[in-house]
Amino acid sequence: MANGPSPAMIDTTCENCMIRHRAVCALCEPDDLVELERIKTYRSYRPGETIAWAGERAQLVGSVIEGVAMLSSTLADGRRQMVGLLLPSDFLGRPGRTTHAYDVVAATEVTFCMFRKAEFERLVTRTPRIERRMLHMTLDELDSAREWMLLLGRKTAREKIASLFVIMARRDAALNQARPRDGLRFPLYITREAMADYLGLTIETVSRQISALRKAGLIEFGANRMIHVAEFVRLIDASGDDAGGGVRA
Amino acid sequence: MANGPSPAMIDTTCENCMIRHRAVCALCEPDDLVELERIKTYRSYRPGETIAWAGERAQLVGSVIEGVAMLSSTLADGRRQMVGLLLPSDFLGRPGRTTHAYDVVAATEVTFCMFRKAEFERLVTRTPRIERRMLHMTLDELDSAREWMLLLGRKTAREKIASLFVIMARRDAALNQARPRDGLRFPLYITREAMADYLGLTIETVSRQISALRKAGLIEFGANRMIHVAEFVRLIDASGDDAGGGVRA
DNA sequence: GCGCCGCCTTGATCGAGATCGACGCGCCGT
DNA sequence: ACGGCGCGTCGATCTCGATCAAGGCGGCGC
After folding, report:
1. FRET label pair with A51: which of A62, B41, B205, B243, CA 20 to 30 Å apart?
2. What is the pLDDT of residues B89-122, one digit of tens each?
3. Does the CB of A59 fall within 7 Å of any strand C atom?
4. Looking only at Cα atoms, what is the longest distance across chain A?
5. Mean pLDDT, to the nearest integer, of A35-48?
6. Is residue A113 within 8 Å of A63, Cβ to Cβ?
7. Inter-chain contact A154–B75, Cβ cutoff 8 Å?
8. Where are the alpha helices (DSSP H) in B55-202?
9. Phi and psi, residue B199, nearest 5°
C-alpha cells in the first residue's frame, strides 16, 4: 500500500479508476461520472501528515484512492483511540456536518480523490445512486465499528493482537487474490503506536504480545516487516472469535 | 419509557405517530405514508425477551416506537459486549443483509413498528427519501459507536460510569424539555448487568464505582431508581470528556 | 408471615496490563 | 565513521479492575 504507484501515475479518468467499483461512485452512470470528473481533484499526503483536525471546518470530502488514513479521538489529557481506518475506496467526510468529528492522519502515503464539500453535496442531493451507495458503505463501517467495540471492551491483549493480524491477513489475501491455504504472509505497515491506538493498549503491551505470539510459534517475522503465519487457524483461535474451522479469506 | 402507554394505546396512524418526525419515515410524503401504513404491523416485547438472535434469518425490520432494546455481541466463552442501544425512532434491521448481525434483547417493555423485510426493501428502492433518512440515521449511529470506542478503549471505570450518567441525564433532559440548570434528575432503568455489558466492565466494578460517585457527592439516590445530580459540571469533569464549562442538554 | 430469588453491595485477593526505566538496532545526515 | 533519533524490546514494579466469596435488601408467591 505504501509503495504503490506514486500519485503522478494515477489514472485520472473515473472509468479507469482503481476504486471505480467499490467507492462512493460505484453505482454511478456514465453521466454522473462526467459530473464528478468536472469537480474532482487529487491530493496526496505524506506518512504522519495530519489531513484534518477534529473540530476543524470541513472544506473537502473524498475517497481514498490508495494508502491508509487513520481517524482518531483524543481525550483532554492526551489519551488517544483510533476509531476508524480509511482504506482505498473508503470515504472521508460526512454529509450534513460542517466540521470534522475526528483527527485524520495519514498512516502511509495516501492519495485522495477529493471534492469541494458544497459542490459534492449538491450533486448527491440530485443523485440518489450516490446516496444509496453511501448508505451501504456507512452500514459496513458501522458493522466494523461494532466489531471493534467487542474487541475493545472484552478481548485480552493477546486476543486483540491476534484479531488485528487476522484482519490484516484477510485483507491482504483478498487484495492479492491469494488463497489462504496453509502459509500466509502479509506486511505489517503500521507502527506499534498505531496498533496500540487502534487496540486500546500501550506500545509496550503490543510489543510484548507480538513477541509472545512469535515465541508460541503462531507467527514468524520475515524480512521487510513481513509476518508469516504458518497455521492460520491457530491465529483465529487465539483471536477469541469463533468461526473456528472455516478459513474465510 | 418502560411505563408509558401500553401498545394497545398507541395511535396507529402514521400522521399521529410519536416518532413520525424522527424515524426512518421522517422525510416521507403523505403518499409514502399510505404505502407504509399498508404494510406495517405493531409488535411488543417484554423486558428481557429476546427479539432476535445473531445469525438468525431476519424476516422483519422496523422502528422502535417506545421502550429500549439492546444490541450485543458475544464471544465463544460467553463474554458479552453491548454494541448499540435502540431507543424510540431507532431502526432495527439492515438493508441488504439477510441475517441479524447481533443479539437483540428488550431492555424494557418495547414496541416496534415493523415491516416484512422484502416489502420494505421494495418500497425503499423506489423511495429515495427513505434512503436519505436512513443514511443520516446510520451516520449518527456510527458517531455514537465511535464515541463508545473511545470510552471502551481509553476511559477508566470511573469515567465510564460518569460518561454513561451524563448521556442518560442529557437524554432525559432532552426528552422532558427540562433545562439542566443546577439540579438534574433522571431514572436509572437499566440493571447493573446491562451497564456492565455496555461499559465493558463487571457488575461488581459498576456497583463500586457508582458507590464511589455517591460517596464523592457527585450523585445522590432518590426513590424509585432516580439519580439526582447536584452539579452537572462535576459529573462531566468526572467523565473525562472535556467540553468543560458549557452545559449542553 | 415466611422464605425464596433476583439484584445489588461490599470485602479480600489476584492478575493482566500500565508505568517507569534502560537499552538495542537501523537509518539518516553530516 | 559517527552520533542522533525514531522505533522497538525487555525487565521491574505498581495498580486498576477482575475474580472469588459473603451477605443485604426488596418483591413476590405460597
Report:
1. B243
2. 999 999 889 999 999 999 989 999 999 999 999 9
3. no
4. 57
5. 92
6. yes
7. yes
8. 117-125, 128-154, 157-175, 192-199
9. -95, -5
**Which residues contact residue B130 at a Cβ distance below 8 angstroms, ignoring those fewer than 6 apart?**
B24, B25, B27, B28, B32, B123, B124
CB–CB of A154 and B96 under 8 A? no
Q: What is the mean pLDDT of chain B?
A: 89
Do the Cβ atoms of B246 and B236 come closer than 8 Å? no
B125 CB contacts (<8 Å, ≥6 apart)? Answer: none
Q: Which of A187, A182, A149, A152 is nearest to A168 (CA)?
A: A187
DSSP A113-145: EEEEHHHHHHHHHT-HHHHHHHHHHHHHHHHHH
Closest alpha carbon to B152 in B139, B141, B170, B164: B164
The amino acid sitting at A129 is R
DSSP code of residue B48: T
Quote the CA–CA distance of A190 and A172 in Å, as a whole number: 14
**Residue A223, C-alpha cell as written in the block:** 524480512
d(CA B65, CA B168): 19
Largest CA distance in chain B: 57
Pairing of strands B110-116, B226-229: unpaired
Nucleotides of C under 7 A from a protein CB: 7-12, 16-21
Q: Is B157 (CB) below 7 Å from strand C?
A: no
CA distance A37 to A25: 11
User: What DSSP element (H or E) covers B184?
Assistant: strand B184-187
Percent of chain A topping pLDDT 70: 91
- Beta-carbon contacts below 8 Å between A and B: 116
pLDDT of residue B95: 87
Whole-angstrom Cα distance, residue A80 to residue A207? 18
Q: What is the pLDDT of residues A158-211, one digit of tens each?
A: 999 999 999 999 988 887 766 655 578 999 989 999 999 999 999 999 999 999
Closest by CA to B201, choosing from B103, B54, B82, is B82
For chain A, what is the radius of gyration of the CA atoms?
A: 19
* Å from the A173 CA to the C23 C1': 37
How many angstroms is C1' of D10 away from CA of A208? 8
**Cβ neighbours for A127, distance < 8 A, ≥ 6 positions apart:** A28, A32, A35
Chain B neighbors of A154, CB-CB under 8 A: 75, 79-81, 200
Spans of chain B below 50 pLDDT: 1-6, 244-249
